[in-house]
Amino acid sequence: MILSLKRVAVFCLMSALLGVAFVWGVRLSTIAEEREESDEQGLDLTCPLVLTITSEKNTYKVHEPITMTITLKNVGEEKVTILFTTRPNPNPHWFSRVYDENNQLVFYHKVMLAIPSLEEITLQPNEIMQRNCTWDQKDTNNEQQVPPGIYYLMARVGFMYHEEVVLLQTQTEISIET
Fold first, then answer.
1. For 119-157, what is each residue's pLDDT tens digit?
2. What is the pLDDT of residues 65-81, one digit of tens each?
3. In whole angstroms, what is the distance from residue 14 CA to residue 153 CA?
4. What is the value of pTM for the model shown?
5. How far is Cα 54 from Cα 92, in angstroms, rounded to an integer?
6. Residue 44 backbone dihedrals phi, psi, to 5 degrees
7. What is the C-alpha to C-alpha distance for residues 89 and 24, in angstroms, rounded to an integer?
8. Who's near 145: CB < 8 A, 6+ residues apart?
9. φ/ψ (deg, to 5) at 20
């Protein structure tokens, strides 16, 4: 009987965590769409942070590792404090993906589900946060080498700034040749 109660408790906890993760993801998506609509309407939703993604070069050989550098920079004249919701991932603030020229997702970081916590970060003017990520040119879903072609490296970061959710996204193009 005690074992069954423990299983029920674990199931309830996991269900609650999945629900929170799903609602948070939907909320971020909805807010990002609202921000895009607001930007199109000319409303000022400025955030003095800029997200960029770069690679060491634009053209790679098949099987050559591709290192992406993702940078979040304070381009403002004052310090900026942002709040992340973090999880115990290798690097919880960043999401990077790679799409092929047909807009098919070929690489992504698998995310662990855990209880969220809050982490506050302050960036001084011109200060950066940076993350490097290496893609081995394999499709995440089947671990096969991707074919030569054009690929889009995409990075996304979400955080709270002045009590508003901010979602920044950027991308760059690379090619893989034989």
1. 788 999 999 999 888 999 999 989 999 999 999 999 988
2. 999 999 999 999 999 99
3. 33
4. 0.69
5. 19
6. -90, 105
7. 17
8. 62, 63, 137, 138, 139
9. -65, -45
